[in-house]
Design a protein that fits this description.
Blueprint lengths: L8 H10 L5 H8 L3 H14 L16 H13 L5 H11 L5 H8 L17 H5 L3 H7 L10
Helix pairs in contact: 2-3
GO molecular function: DNA binding
Pfam family, one: HTH_Tnp_Tc3_2
InterPro entries: Homeodomain-like_sf, HTH_SB, Transposase_Tc1-like, WH-like_DNA-bd_sf
Length: 148
């Protein structure tokens, strides 16, 4: 279903002014506005006391932009910080979130949970030691390789 154009503020005020005794159908015919729109405007006026449209559709953000920046800053300082630790930090600040929420905030900043593994420490004595499997592959041990 396509998105319809909103009704401007002037017809909304006229609808509320007409309501003082007219039916919804009569108001819609008079102003050439759908009856369901008239019904919605009147209901909103009775409930909220205003004819302004609400533009806050959609789910609200769990974290404020300030909390998101704090998370990103903490992870940029120490990339090996666990998501559980970040959740505990936010909980101490007074915001209860899940680990998934923390990961979804960090993902657009390219801060994923993977980091390069540590390379093994190669000491000089280990560098000098011959690697038996490599020498087999290169054919250095002729007695152990197949003869053609």
């Amino acid at each position: 279903m396509g998105k319809s154009k909103g009704i401007s503020q002037d017809p909304r005020k006229q609808i509320v002014d007409h309501k003082s005794g007219s039916s919804l159908g009569a108001i819609s015919k008079c102003l050439k506005v759908p009856r369901s729109s008239v019904q919605t405007i009147v209901r909103r006026y009775k409930h909220h006391g205003t004819t302004q449209p609400s533009y806050c559709s959609g789910r609200r953000h769990v974290l404020s932009p300030r909390d998101e920046r704090t998370l990103v800053r903490k992870v940029q300082i120490n990339p090996r910080t666990a998501a559980k630790d970040l959740v505990k930090m936010l909980d101490e600040m007074g915001t209860k979130v899940s680990i998934t929420t923390v990961k979804l905030v960090l993902y657009p900043q390219n801060l994923k949970g993977c980091s390069a593994r540590k390379k093994p420490l190669l000491q000089n004595r280990l560098k000098k030691k011959p690697d038996y499997s490599l020498q087999l592959h290169m054919g250095m041990y002729s007695g152990l390789t197949k003869e053609k």
